[in-house]
Amino acid sequence: MHVVYLHGFLSSPQSEKAQLTQAYVAEHYPQISLITPQIPNTIDAVPAVLHKIIEPIVASGEPLRLIGSSMGGFLSNWLIEQFGGRAVLINPAVAPYNLMQDYLGKHTNPYSGEEFYVTADHIEQLRAMEPAVIAEPAAYKVLLQQGDETLDYRLAEARYSGGDITVEAGGDHSFVDFADHLEDIFTFLFATNPVAPIAQ
After folding, report:
1. CATH H-level superfamily of 2-189
2. Residue 118 pairs with which residues in a beta bridge?
3. Where are the domains of the chain?
4. CA-based angle 74:1:129, to the nearest 5?
5. For 144-185, what is each residue's pLDDT tens digit?
């Protein structure tokens, strides 16, 4: 059994939420394989990397289970609409091709130190990747905080209408007190194909 955690733009598997998720799985679901890939910094390289991870899981007949933060939330949406399954989205990016207009040019990933450029072509690739519709809103659990300084939570609230949406006052883009939601996150991911946590 697998769960795939997808981090956001300018982030890493070493991010706080990814690390908290790894620790939670190690304690409560050691029978699960949590995959936390390093997502390429530029979108042109992302599909091949993610498909290499996702396609064997789907081919095995196992339901796809994703956790995606920010840009990782957008990518989770993109994958679920291709392959089916369930996803938990944390302050997910909506229409990131609009957001990325402000990021054109050179950047350095603060975790890896890798330098890269965001180009107009990358923005158009993001636009082409966006699923036109949400086929099954119930496949998504969406965690939003109104204090998100990077994204307008109302865009995600509208896009994933009909899903399992939690909106909290305050907070920020990192999603304050994320660890408090991990039990509910994994309950949702395994609701249709139950996996019991290890008794403590």
Report:
1. Alpha/Beta hydrolase fold, catalytic domain (3.40.50.1820)
2. 105
3. 2-189
4. 20
5. 999 999 889 999 999 999 999 999 999 888 889 999 999 999
